[in-house]
Amino acid sequence: xxxxxxxxxxxxxxxxxxxxxxxxxxxxxxxxxxxxxxxxxxxxxxxxxxxxxxxxxxxxxxxxxxxxxxxxxxxxxxxxxxxxxxxxxxxxxxxxxxxxxxxxxxxxxxxxxxxxxxxxxxxxxxxxxxxxxxxxxxxxxxxxxxxxxxxxxxxxxxxxxxxxxxxxxxxxxxxxxxxxxxxxxxxxxxxxxxxxxxxxxxxxxxxxxxxxxxxxxxxxxxxxxxxxxxxxxxxxxxxxxxxxxxxxxxxxxxxxxxxxxxxxxxxxxxxxxxxxxxxxxxxxxxxxxxxxxxxxxxxxxxxxxxxxxxxxxxxxxxxxxxxxxxxxxxxxxxxxxxxxxxxxxxxxxxxxxxxxxxxxxxxxxxxxxxxxxxxxxxxxxxxxxxxxxxxxxxxxxxxxxxxxxxxxxxxxxxxxxxxxxxxxxxxxxxxxxxxxxxxxxxxxxxxxxxxxxxxxxxxxxxxxxxxxxxxxxxxxxxxxxxxxxxxxxxxxxxxxxxxxxxxxxxxxxxxxxxxxxxxxxxxxxxxxxxxxxxxxxxxxxxxxxxxxxxxxxxxxxxxxxxxxxxxxxxxxxxxxxxxxxxxxxxxxxxxxxxxxxxxxxxxxxxxxxxxxxxxxxxxxxxxxxxxxxxxxxxxxxxxxxxxxxxxxxxxxxxxxxxxxxxxxxxxxxxxxxxx
Length: 675
Prior knowledge:
Layout: H1 3-35, H2 39-57, E1 61-69, E2 73-82, E3 88-100, E4 108-126, E5 131-132, H3 135-142, E6 160-163, E7 165-177, E8 182-199, E9 204-221, E10 240-257, E11 262-279, E12 284-301, H4 312-323, E13 329-346, E14 360-375, E15 380-391, E16 396-406, E17 410-420, E18 424-432, E19 447-451, E20 455-458, H5 459-465, H6 473-476, E21 482-492, E22 495-505, E23 508-517, E24 526-537, H7 538-544, E25 559-568, E26 573-581, E27 584-595, E28 598-611, H8 612-615, E29 622-634, E30 642-654, E31 657-659, E32 662-669, E33 672-674
Parallel strand pairs: 4-6, 4-7, 9-10, 12-13
Antiparallel strand pairs: 1-2, 2-3, 3-4, 4-5, 7-8, 8-9, 10-11, 11-12, 13-14, 14-15, 15-16, 16-17, 17-18, 18-19, 19-21, 20-21, 21-22, 22-23, 23-24, 24-25, 25-26, 26-27, 27-28, 28-29, 29-30, 30-31, 30-32, 32-33
């Protein structure tokens, strides 16, 4: 045989050998893949893994099956880990992790999915060493002898972490913490999380979908927290969150704090949040839609177990927020709250028998629909489309809608409609001010434009808001009546224009027209009232004025009509009064001014056909009385009064005798009249 033929024969043999070797290896691998799919092999792997873990951590560990779906999925069935107190630390019926092994070559931890079903975990932390009941597991794996390796001075390539999906089904978790004196109990039917991107380097977290249903959370603070010395840590960089959709269904949360006596119970039917972005570093929140329905919140407060007067942690956080140079910017396109119940009880205060009790509130059927909500330091806007609720007292808001704009120097409430069970306000309101930060400061620099036409305020609503009014029996008897308002108030607070403000109740009518300069300083303000008018009846006065304010021994006239003009301040003014009643009339012109803190005055008074007998309830001795008088003087108390009096009593009926043309001229000084 030639050399060439021999080489060819060897080459063919070598090729066949290599092919057989590769085929053998592949066949062996295929055989392994087939074998690890067999339940006996999976149970053997689980048993060996459990034995290794049990020997390592020193407590019983059992695993029923471990299955590998080459090349990236591992599933574990019936894993049990016992704690050092012979209690259950962890039990899971099913755990499956899908991870991309090839991505590890690119310094990427690619977790495609994690699924956990029918799992129970019991954790606790004990004193005095503040250790957790799972610390022994960590110690078992990290307390081995360190291996001396040369220091790596090369820059390590950063790892990327990608996490796509997490599913939890039927989870039960407890945590008892002796350090914080708290107890946590949680059960969960379903949790699904689809992650868009986790950028740990940039501190950005993007979530596609988050679904939670059947959550029952109980958290209780049982006593004073035990402090633990910690070094002050540098504040981490604030993250950015993005969420495409959040859905919560059938959520129960119970919170109690024995230190403060606070209890909170939340039964949430459905909460949905769409397209949300929260940038804590830039202080920006942008949300497309929020919807909440069929939810009840109950909060109870009491001063049990010596509650602290303030929370230093909360004070510190508040100070940090206030110290930030820039404020928050928030935008919400749509919000819908439907069928919400709210209960608040302050057990340190007794319950009121009537009216809105702000220490014991119970609101049902709360509905809020709004859109285009914007908030920043210098601009607030919302289109409130609907707000309704009922309160246990009987007070209700049946309709409330308005377009609110609060800009740097101006606030408007356009298309304002408010209807309660017995009241109605439907107008436009406008306010101006130096800046948002100065709202409520120096009211003289504020302006208003208030239109009251068509406004009606129910007596019933007034009693709801001020229950003490119910003690006035005559007012309570007219509980179904309404106060009718009309007119306009416009201009700067320091120069208000009052345009025919009218207040009507029953047969009582009040009309005011004029201007006020110098508000909000009531005492020094200048009033220019060209029309002050009050028309009422005896029945209305007895109904509306408390008995304690009515003078004894005086008969209220059947009809009262008061017309007046007033110009000036409370200390310096000119006024003209025309009082017409069914018992007689009084006309008066009064001037008053303040001179060296002593008031001086001049008055011309005319009394016409005044029936003193009926007025003073002495009809047997007194009758009609008529008089004109002029008074010039100073001082208003008997000790300081000095007054020159000139009067003509044209008619006075006394003891069935009529006196005419009685002249009175004299001086009142030192509590004596000489004339």
